[in-house]
Specification:
Elements: H1 7-23, E1 35-38, E2 46-51, E3 58-64, H2 66-76, E4 91-97, H3 104-112, E5 123-129, E6 136-137, H4 140-162, E7 174-179, E8 185-190, H5 206-214, E9 217-228, E10 233-234, E11 240-241, E12 244-250, E13 256-262, H6 268-284, E14 289-295, H7 301-311, E15 314-317, H8 322-336
Parallel strand pairs: 1-7, 9-14, 14-15
Antiparallel strand pairs: 1-2, 2-3, 3-4, 4-5, 5-6, 7-8, 9-12, 10-11, 12-13
Helix pairs in contact: 1-4, 5-6
Length: 338
């Protein structure tokens, strides 16, 4: 991997990981106990969440930016039925794994540093999750982010153990540690804007709309879905991402009319803006346009309904799409075997 962390960076990272493991903050913190960090050398804020309370997966997560926090908050409410949102929560993560779940590269670094781990949830692993991407090894810049925020993060976690009101004294403002230009840190309670808007107005290319509306139509019902693929595709640098899949299946025959795989958006807001355009481009690949569509996603239905009304096409929300589910399973099996 290009631009890998230096050996000195790795040494410091594992030292911090050991401190966190010894503290075991998941014993007194829930993942909803989130605090912020603001550093002048970075444009975006960072937000720290600890995973592991009442579970067997222990991790120290650093969410990057207000959009990632917005996605985190939506997922925490369990009101959203789109699990793919998780992939748009940009973060760095230290997790503690069994040896069998470590990659060869993890074990090589541990050996090079002369460290020894054994037992369940004992091996620290460091991963980056970019928007739309699967967990991947951190690079040198991401290692530096860890090093810039971990000392303060550990300090705050210790304080929260002694004072559970620390994060909530000025609720709904969020507790922050703020670094000045001179390098000094101080406490602040700051308002965090809600930057993730699920129901947004969107613009679509009128030329593409016109092309679709000018095409011949046929009386047919199409099962349709857009979802995050359960498989990874490597980008030009070898990082695996989870493509967005747009799938159209003929309800009567079960045949696949079109399938499109799209690269990840920049963040979740960008995802919401670009998805309508992706849908249009997928429809425009058809030579003849079916007039009726069915989908089962409560999350996407309002977006599709608005778009399809512009096109003069019928769309309805249904519980089951048997032909589409078979097509999805077939696609997943195909990509898994490659």
């Amino acid at each position: 991997m290009k631009n890998s962390p230096t050996l000195n960076q790795w040494k410091q990272l594992y030292q911090y990981a050991e401190k966190i493991k010894e503290l075991a903050p998941w014993e007194w913190m829930y993942e909803s106990d989130v605090f912020g960090l603001s550093l002048p050398e970075y444009e975006e804020n960072f937000y720290v969440s600890v995973l592991g309370n009442n579970s067997e997966h222990f991790a120290f997560c650093i969410l990057q930016g207000d959009v990632s926090l917005g996605v985190f908050d939506l997922l925490s409410k369990d009101e959203i039925e789109f699990s793919g949102m998780f992939f748009y929560m940009t973060q760095l993560q230290i997790s503690y794994e069994d040896r069998e779940f470590c990659e060869k590269k993890d074990l090589e670094i541990i050996k090079k540093l002369g460290l020894k781990f054994r037992g369940s949830n004992d091996y620290p692993t460091f991963r980056a999750m970019h928007a739309g991407y699967l967990p991947y090894f951190i690079d040198r810049d991401e290692a530096q982010v860890f090093l810039d925020v971990l000392e303060q993060s550990i300090s705050v976690v210790k304080r929260f153990q002694q004072d559970e009101d620390l994060f909530y004294e000025e609720h709904p403002k969020k507790f922050f540690r703020v670094k000045s230009e001179s390098g000094e840190w101080k406490d602040e309670y700051l308002s965090v804007p809600n930057v993730v808007k699920l129901h947004q107005t969107f613009r679509v290319p009128q030329a593409v709309v016109n092309e679709i509306m000018d095409k011949p139509t046929r009386e047919a019902i199409v099962e349709m879905e857009i979802y995050i693929a359960p498989f990874g595709v490597n980008d030009e640098e070898g990082r695996p991402y989870a493509p967005l899949v747009f799938l159209l299946v003929d309800k009567q025959s079960g045949g696949i009319l079109n399938v499109e795989l799209f690269k990840p958006a920049r963040d979740f807001n960008d995802f919401l803006h670009t998805t309508p355009v992706n849908i249009l481009n997928g429809l425009n690949k058809l030579k003849i346009i079916p007039v009726k569509y069915q989908m089962s996603s409560d999350f996407f239905f309002p977006l599709f309904k608005s778009l399809f009304q512009k096109l003069g096409l019928d769309i309805e929300l249904v519980k089951n799409l048997p032909n589409l589910e078979r097509a999805k399973a077939s696609m997943t099996s195909f990509f898994a075997s490659r």
